[in-house]
Hints:
The chain is mostly helical. The chain has one domain (22-350): Ammonium transporter fold. It has twelve helices and no strands. It has helices at residues 3-47, 53-65, 67-79, 104-125, 131-154, 159-162, 171-189, 210-229, 239-272, 281-296, 304-327, 336-350. Helix 7 (171-189) packs antiparallel against helix 12 and helix 8 runs parallel beside helix 10 (281-296). The mean pLDDT is 90.
Amino acid sequence: MDAFALAKANADALEQFKFDGDQLWNIVAAILVILMQIGFGLLETGAIRSSSATNLLYHNVVDLFIGVLGFYLIGWAITGFGQEGDWEWFGTHGWGAEIPPDLWSFWVFQFSFAATASTIVSGSICERTYTASYAAISFMVTAFIYPAMVHLAWDSDGFLYKVGFLDFAGSGVVHMTGGFIGLVGAYICGPRKGRFVKGVDQELYRPHNYINLCVGTLFLLVGWFGFNAGSTGTMGGNMITAAHCVITTIMGASGGFCMCAGISMLINLYKYKHLHGDYDLGEVCNAALAGIVSITAGTNTLPFPYAFMAGAVGYLVYKGCSTALEKLEIDDPCDAFAVHGGAGVWGVFLLSFAPQ
Length: 356
């Protein structure tokens, strides 16, 4: 083999190695995101009454196995990925899951996001939804609603993409979308029986299993590393950005946690004259998650101190939304709208003035 042929063979081998590395990166990231379903299942079943836990776990299973059909048959085409000449509002090519082989791993990653958006909804409408009805909701989210948001914000033909909308890993596209669908669902379903009735012990509606709730939160944190770092899309040349995403993810969670825990300490100091008092484990877990949602849009560019501060403000946004819904007597058992919808809005808005 002459020198030219050898150089070409080496170049081809290097190109194939890069391609295979990118495929592996997408697959591993997708697996981490899909494992978030375990986190959602544990957190949500811990946050509600024990009598409804099995039904809610069934809904988590539905999100994967019904959601994949919606995304495969319809959703992928609406995203517009891999196609050119689509409308600004939704994709118009690739119906019936015409997926090129070189996009298979990317398809899996995008489906994992779609399943996440759908699962967020389950936390808002749990304990009041028949399984068949929820299956229809899951199909609609993964087939139509989430893919349309993806096309608008992330596809080069999308309207929001063209006007410069920024959302690297989905504070708006995934979390805000799922949160607001959940809010609408919670309003339509109405509150659980006795939830806002005077004379009914409201302690009955508090989380029944804090172990599940806490372990679920930690599962979500680990999965979120794949969610944010995996949004780089490729391995080659992006590992520094991926590492940045991992650090901002944990810094955002820390910001939300520290703000919540710090305020609780001050309240205890004021009420009891010491720091030993009431600490709500469910609230600090949700605070950490709200912190991560807050930095997800800018996880690739936010400086680490800003990620911490963004997460801290994210807790305040979450707490404000949660309190407002309770005043309005809108029953969101897992505070899914406050964590994902409210903090998602903040995460997107943050990029309008945060340093890049």
